[in-house]
Amino acid sequence: MAMKSYVGALLLLLSFSSSINAQVFNVATYGAKGDGSSDISQALLSAWKEACASTTPAKVLIPGGTFALTEVALDGPCKAPVEFELQGTLKAPADPSLFKTDGWVVFQHIDGLTMSGGGTFDGQGKTAWGQNDCAKNTNCRTLPTNLRFNFVTNALIHDVTTLDSKYFQVNVLGAKNMTFQNFHVNAPADSINTDGIHIGRSDGVNILDSDIKTGDDCVSLGDGSRQITVKGVTCGPGHGISVGSLGKYENEEPVEGVFVTNCTIIGADNGVRIKTWPASKPGTASDMHFEDIQMDNVLNPVILDQGYCPFNQCKAGVPSLIKISKVSFKKIRGTSASQVAVKVLCSRSVPCEEVEIADIDLVYNGPEGPATSECANVKPVLSGKLNPAACAKVVS
Ligand SMILES: *[C@@H]1O[C@H](CO)[C@@H](O)[C@H](O)[C@H]1NC(C)=O
Ligand SMILES: *[C@@H]1O[C@H](CO)[C@@H](O)[C@H](O)[C@H]1NC(C)=O
């Protein structure tokens, strides 16, 4: 018995000591100065290169202070797990024309990445937002995303902040088993295209206990998002937690397995949303569940829109060919800032299937009267208390 617990304690100690004893590669050792103006990209790349080559767990440390950083790509594969500990603030160049690529700090092809430290990635996006003309110009230049994770697996990103990105704050592509926890996103409501965390073509991504204040979708899930959990996230300002938009491009992969639970959406344009383009390529999105969501003054608390067509960049009359099935909206309560609090507008070519609506309590306090709802091309299964009544108005 005593022996057993001794062995247990030893194993526990060993498993913790791997991170305690990680060899530390401090950027200051490589010449980085936290003076807010000297570019540390060479120092960071050197520290990363050595950490990544270490055969035992390693840590790249950016200590307290403000460090100027032009764009960097931190590449794997690495020989052992690597931690990126950001204690201070990294500051991007404000001028977007100084960027050669669409990423500011890019992590790619890394298995076993941890990010921590309480620090901030400051994208200094203000100038770029003023130059963003993507709403009108379809060939607009893609501005840099603060943090890109390309083909990163078994990763934990926690206790860091991304601030004022020029474009998406975080982009996740090709991830497997990646968790964001106590992760902070911050930008003003009028910052353009600053999606908080965008995920595409990834399997097993969790966003937990995080807060996202930004100018576009708090979380957006693009094609090929599979087994995505969003739990305990506070969102707003922003455009809500969105699946899509889907169907704009050729060869999109299915969306499958989206679980959004215990989230709070405050003062946002949308709450929970699924959006697909009209006149789309064929595709599927299924097994998407939104449950236990608090809405506080949200313009469109629940919205499934298969005719998503901002700035008339599409043939609006031609129905979407993205087939949506197995969707549930449950235990959604709070206040709506518009009268139509629940919209489930499916495609007339491929009506939605297996949609469930249960326990909705959304209040609207406008002059037009109480909250209402709209449906198109869907026959949802209803249960529990429904305020507003589901599909009060059926449109086509
Ligand atoms: C997922 O990644 C975390 C963080 O690196 C790791 O601790 C965990 O073991 C991984 N899970 C699986 C199933 O590989
Ligand atoms: C729900 O999320 C909040 C944070 O927004 C957290 O404090 C609370 O513990 C969570 N509750 C459950 C049941 O997960």
TrEMBL record:
Residues spanning the signal sequence: 1-22
Keywords from the UniProt entry: Cell wall, Cell wall biogenesis/degradation, Glycosidase, Hydrolase, Secreted, Signal
Family stated for the protein in its record: Belongs to the glycosyl hydrolase 28 family.
Organism: Eucalyptus grandis
Gene Ontology MF term list: polygalacturonase activity
InterPro entries xref list: Glyco_hydro_28, PbH1, Pectin_lyas_fold, Pectin_lyase_fold/virulence
SUPFAM superfamilies the record matches: Pectin lyase-like
Any Pfam family: Glyco_hydro_28
Name recorded for this polypeptide: Exopolygalacturonase-like
Coiled coil (residue ranges): none
Active site, renumbered: 239
GO biological process: carbohydrate metabolic process; cell wall organization
PROSITE patterns, alphabetized: POLYGALACTURONASE (PS00502)
SMART domains recorded: PbH1
Localization: Secreted, Cell wall
